[in-house]
């Protein structure tokens, strides 16, 4: 029963985190201070805690299933670390844009962040469902 509860919390946290990550990726492309403030408030209150829950429940599930050492999980973890790093980059960029009143221009590659999130989530879901290796 605990496994199913962990899995449910994990999936809810993932959906919340990915939604927030997509919102961050759009927020850095909008030159509007009010939008930046709203997105940052949401990030601090919802997206960042969801990321913490993703990691906590994910590690607990992997330990419960004895999956550490499985190749599919190792690949998944690389993708999840990259998504976590992207969250930090986007949140930091948005913070600097808000602090410096839009003077900071986001890195050009951040314009592709939303697409990268969608592709990364497709890879993660494929790995978890299929467990190809």
UniProtKB/TrEMBL annotation:
UniProt keyword annotation of ATP-binding present: no
Catalytic activity: protoporphyrinogen IX + 3 A = protoporphyrin IX + 3 AH2
Metabolic or biological pathway: Porphyrin-containing compound metabolism; protoporphyrin-IX biosynthesis; protoporphyrin-IX from protoporphyrinogen-IX: step 1/1
Ranges that cross the membrane: 12-33, 45-63, 69-90, 102-130
Keywords in alphabetical order: Cell membrane, Heme, Iron, Membrane, Metal-binding, Transmembrane, Transmembrane helix
Protein name from the UniProt record: Protoporphyrinogen IX oxidase
Keyword hit for Heme: yes
EC number of the protein: 1.3.99.-
InterPro entries hit by this protein: HemJ-like
Organism the protein comes from: Burkholderia theae
Co-factor note (free text): Binds 1 heme b (iron(II)-protoporphyrin IX) group per subunit.
Cofactor(s) the record lists: heme b
